[in-house]
Here is the input.
Amino acid sequence: MPEKNSFKHKAREYQNEIYNTCKDKNCLVVLPTGIGKTLIALMLTINRIKSFPGSKILFLAPTRPLAEQHLEYFKKKSSRIFAQLDLFTGKVDAKERKKYGKNVK
Here is the structure.
């Protein structure tokens, strides 16, 4: 589990169970809206960054508003953990996407 105080929200027991199942495996978590999938994703992201410092995480969402919501959640709950968080959507044209990929460290 992520280090205590790594984020500003206490996980529920079932979220911790899902986290523990997924942290060492490829998983697809299917839960109803509002149950806490984003928190589980945040916990897994923190674990991954701590296990592989300097690595990149790509968080996908089906819509721009949902991607924006996830970005704000990650910033709010864990601003001191991540050096850089960026929103990358279909609004970024192809030339900029190419530059972006080369510049992200």
Remarks:
- Helices lie at 13-22, 37-51, 64-78, 94-103.
